[in-house]
Amino acid sequence: HVSCEYMEQSDSVGLVVVSEEDQQPLLVHRISREDIYQRQGGDTIITWTDPDIHTDIALSFQEAMGCNYIWEQISSVQHTYKKSD
After folding, report:
1. What is the DSSP letter of 33?
2. Predicted pLDDT at 23
3. 25-30 and 12-18: which strand pairing?
4. Any bridge partners for residue 16, and if so which?
5. Which residues contact 12 (CB under 8 A, 6 or more apart)?
6. This prediction's pTM
7. CB neighbours of 30 closer than 8 A, spacing ≥ 6?
8. Nearest CA among 57, 65, 66, 52 for reference residue 12
9. Which pLDDT belongs to residue 52?
10. Is pLDDT above 90 for 64?
11. Max alpha carbon distance in the chain (Å)?
């Protein structure tokens, strides 16, 4: 499960991936101001290189609808960053 959440510690918005089995976080990523995100795999994969940990990351979705929703969330957060600069 992937969600877009406010991260109080960094006063930013991030992606949180949690395990479907035990609801434990698998990934917490602060959405970057930089244009680092790409779509691949026929609209079911979002990839990027995390600038904080220098690691390539890919989120794969079962359905394009879920991928589209997270993609729009990332785009919205980045648009908000650009307006505040």
Report:
1. S
2. 94
3. antiparallel
4. 3, 28
5. 6, 30, 31
6. 0.88
7. 7, 10, 12, 13, 14, 52
8. 52
9. 85
10. yes
11. 40
What gap in Å lies between CA 81 and CA 63, rounded to an integer? 28
φ and ψ at residue 71, rounded to 5 degrees: -60, -45
Give the integer Cα–Cα distance in Å for 43 and 37.
Answer: 13
Structure tokens at 63: 């359905």
Q: How far apart are CA 73 and CA 70, in angstroms?
A: 5
Residues 6+ apart with CB under 8 A from 51: 32, 34, 36
Burial class of 60 by CB neighbour count within 10 A (0 to 12, 13 to 18, 19+):
exposed
Per-residue model confidence (pLDDT) at position 2: 94
State residue 70's pLDDT score. Answer: 97
AA identity, residue 23: Q
Q: How far apart are CA 7 and CA 3, in angstroms?
A: 12
pLDDT, one tens digit per residue, over 43-55 is 899 999 998 889 9
